[in-house]
Amino acid sequence: MPSQPPTSILLVCLGNICRSPMAEGLLRDRAKRRGIQVRTDSAGTGDSHLGQAPDPRAQAEMRRYSIDISDLRARQFVRADFERFDLLLAMDHHNLKDMLRQVPSEKLAPKAKLMMDWSPDRPGTDVPDPWYGGPEGFGDVFAMLEKAVDALLDDLAHGR
Questions:
Q1: How many angstroms separate the CA atoms of 85 and 150, rounded?
Q2: DSSP character at residue 52
Q3: Residue 1 falls within a domain, yes or no?
Q4: Which helix (H) or strand (E) segment is 11 a member of?
């Protein structure tokens, strides 16, 4: 029986230096540990951090769990991402609206969803942007993303 091609997932926030690279790092780490084939990328709806590595506070939080995201670089979300990815996960409602403004056709719009829709205890909520706060905000974001990523991978493992 041929193996199923990997699912491609794009994680999206505003600047692509905090939430979405943390989500991407967590997703690729957990998928690898579970043996689930997933192709990941992350992007920002804004353009103020293009080419930059993730925020040092995001990297530090991820290192606490032995996840290295230092290889990631910020890029801007583009219209073609709707065609390139199976699933596009926004960190908040504002990012989701910005993404949907670029949807090339209405049939592709259902690919864009909120990351927290997979959260067992916080569906439909936003992942708060930790940029303006201290390091503890990055820990809170990690905890939120961890639950959502684990539930997403459960769905993928069961073909949902």
A1: 20
A2: P
A3: no
A4: strand 7-13
Q: Which of 29, 55, 81, 129 is catalytic?
A: 129
Q: State how far the Cα of 91 lies from the Cα of 75, in Å rounded to an integer.
A: 15
Give this prediction's pTM: 0.95
Tokens of 62: 């991820």
In a domain, 2, yes or no: no
What type of residue is 139? G
Provide the domain count of the chain: 1
Choose, from 19, 29, 55, 81, the residue flagged as catalytic.
19
**Which residues share a beta bridge with 43?**
12
Rounded Cα gap, residues 66 and 44, in angstroms: 24
Distances (CA, A) of 120 to 87, 124, 149: 19, 10, 10
10-62 pLDDT tens trace: 999 999 999 999 999 999 999 999 999 999 999 999 999 999 999 999 999 99
Of 13, 55, 92, 126, the catalytic one is: 13
Active-site annotation holds for 13:
yes
